[in-house]
Amino acid sequence: MTSQAGEEWLSLREAAEMLGMHPATVRLWADRNELPSRRTSGGHRRFRRTDIEARLRQESELKPNVASQMLIQNLIGRVRLDFTAGTLGRFSWYQHFNESALNAYRMLGRRALDLLLRGLNDPAHKEDLRQEAIQLGTEYGTVTRKAHVPVADAVRAFLYFRTIMDEAVLQLAEVRGAREQDIPWLESLYQIQTITNEILPALIEAAVTPESLSL
């Protein structure tokens, strides 16, 4: 939507897609006046494209710290290895995931990595991260329920990948910690656990209840 002044206004969903965030997070930023917005006569939020672009530039200026860069790369490598080596096929829980569920889980997994990366680099926004983690867990649970995946198997899969995350931190701490004492490995592990501890309960709750996602 373009106003007479030539300003382009975006809906909540469009702004969220542009930012790569969940609409709930963008709504929270607007409520806190961290992101300018206005409401239409019908009560719908609208965001100026120029404000969204400014926010994106601001986010791009945040430099990932060395620890988070190494951690995420190590984590991605481990997950890819497990997929290509057929390691996952040995687990009974993996057999219950159809192709549709696997594709959905992979997409959510990429978002989880992005959430972890932001949590490692900018832990100050704890409430934003917590809300996103809960929403992500809800979406995991919704995929689980719709794909008829046993909840116990979804939990086993989540804990398997969470263990990979923990091991990635501990391995890097062991290999590099002696030379790079300034890298907060234990703090990184704590940040990962803080986020994943919010995802898992939300996953279980959404998987066992019939309510759909509320955006």
From TrEMBL:
GO terms for biological process: regulation of DNA-templated transcription. InterPro entries: DNA-bd_dom_put_sf, HTH_17, MerR-type_HTH_dom, SinI_DNA-bd. This is Transcriptional regulator, MerR family. Residues 13-53 form the HTH merR-type domain. It holds the Pfam family HTH_17. CDD domains: HTH_MerR-trunc. GO terms for molecular function: DNA binding. The lineage of its organism: Bacteria, Bacillati, Chloroflexota, Ktedonobacteria, Ktedonobacterales.
